[in-house]
Amino acid sequence: MDTVRPASTLDSNPAPPPSLTPSSCMHHHAHPATAVATRPPQQQCPFVTRGRILLMLVASMSFTLLLVAHCMYPATAPAVFYVCWTEQRRKLQLGIVVPPSPPSKTGTSSSSSKETRLGQLPPEKDSDSDSEVGRRSMRRRLPQCLIIGVRKGGTRALLEFLNLHPAIRAHKSEVHFFDDDHNYSLGLDWYRRRMPDSRSDQITVEKTPAYFVQDRVPGRVRRMNASVRLLLIVRDPVDRAISDYMQIQSMRLSRGKRHVPFERLAVDAVTGEIDCSYRAIERSIYHLHMAEWLRHFALDRFHFVSGENLVRNPMAELRKVERFLRIDHKLSRRQFYFNRTRGFYCMRAAAAQEKCLASSKGRTHPDISPNVTAKLRRFFAPHNLRFYEMVGLDFGWNTS
Prior knowledge:
By secondary structure, the chain is of the alpha/beta class. It is 40% helix and 10% strand.
């Protein structure tokens, strides 16, 4: 930005303008008496040509028309550019190539021509008109399904497995829209723009495990969509609490903080009882959080996934999820294989590409005192029973 100086600092005697060179378009110093005899043939300024003048005139008229259209119809001009840009970007994302149309013998294109026309998707085998329309209606939509928890219960594996299904479009990262007050204040349109593009016949899924344990979240979710489908993957609360502790400690150590034993955090030093104020313990008391969700949603809006079964037999659990979401059974056992090194199932995606979860998943648990482990199981037993009664399922944690 140019700095505006005070008037007193300006030179009262500005320097004269530089003299014009002989090559200038205007010859100011020719003597009147000899002007006729000595003036060279008049040359046109090389910068000012008819083509440039015409181009500037067309640009000026176009800009004027755009301003008039914008003043009369404020939403029209930006919309035209937005629609054109969106259409071109969609074609690039879908890999649509428009080949030049060969000349037709009759001079008109045949209705049965197999060439891809501008603005149309390439034809696919066994596709009907409805699927073609759905394929062309790619846009960002609010989630119709949420994976609400639980933290360290297997939410990442569930999301990645479901994303192999052609009817699922999953957001890869945690958005934290409903539990973060700042994000929530940005509105549903901001949330929608975070979602991946999807067709009308696909389900958009978002995962944030923190949703399950925040009391303000269920009401916010209901205000977005009272018929949203909710997936909750749960795990033995003792194992989940220890995994939660491991993740927290890993983050602490990466920040240069000292290691704190699990026993010191989970057991009250004065009473010797389990400290339910410790967040890793409190998150595992499932019925406390589930009760808040049931205040806003009927039980049939939830599907409960066993974290243990998802590790042992992912296809059995995924079949149940497909039925709950009312989508075709497209996932197959060929898409999963057991990785003996990692100790859990990995995926075979398109083109036989193999993919496993991050190395941070499936951490080895530290050695916990057997007395503390037994104390944890006694503590969680009545809480587990209350959860079983609440959801109508027995996950068998009290018998482990």
